[in-house]
Amino acid sequence: MNAVRRKKLMWVLFTLAGAAVAVVLVIYAIGQQTDYYFDPTAIAKGEAPQDKRIRAGGMVVAGSVQRAPNDPLSVEFAITDFKSTVPVTYQGILPDLFAENSGIVATGKMQGTTFVAGEVLAKHDENYMPPEVAKSLKENNRSGTGAASGQYKPAEPIRDNQAL
Predict the structure, then answer these.
(1) Most buried pick, 19, 156, 160, 161, via CB within 10 A?
(2) Does residue 161 lie within any of the structural domains?
């Protein structure tokens, strides 16, 4: 093989290797940004991974919201899909619309049997329920406050790059 062909072949091989490395890095980055949704029944069955970021959602159990007396930003509550209940701890400011008997979706990690939330999202009006929560409640043949009259409609999910 002459020198010109060898030089072209090496250039093509390095280009292909660089493209392969770029594809692997993109796939890895996408995998790291994926949060899988688990309802309280799946979490109670132990299907949710420990110490891996997941999303959990359900209705906030009435009477379960407790704030720490010495730390006003520390709150504990429970979420349910009316089959199972999961305790949740959160350190931070809860959304203004967070309330008992309302739907939420939280992002965080399982630590033992407790879900430690890093972010809590609450419904934005009386006609909205997070799609995952609505589906979970529908599968369990239950509904949240006002849902018996068909008020809740799943909305389009918010994309990461979409402004809130």
Answers:
(1) 19
(2) no
Are 110 and 54 within 8 A, CB to CB? yes
Question: pLDDT category, 132, cuts 50, 70, 90?
Answer: confident
Task: Quickly count: other Cβ atoms within 10 Å of residue 44's Cβ.
Answer: 17
94 is a domain residue: yes
- Centre a 10 Å sphere on the Cβ of residue 90 and count the other Cβ atoms it contains: 20
Residue (of 130, 161, 139, 111) closest to 37 by Cα position: 130
The reported pTM is 0.63
Alpha carbon of residue 17 to chain centroid: 35
Is 101 part of a structural domain of the chain?
A: yes
Categorise residue 150: left if φ over 0, alpha if ψ from -120 to 50, beta otherwise: left
Q: Which residues span the domain enclosing 144?
A: 35-154
Q: Is 90 annotated as a binding residue?
A: no
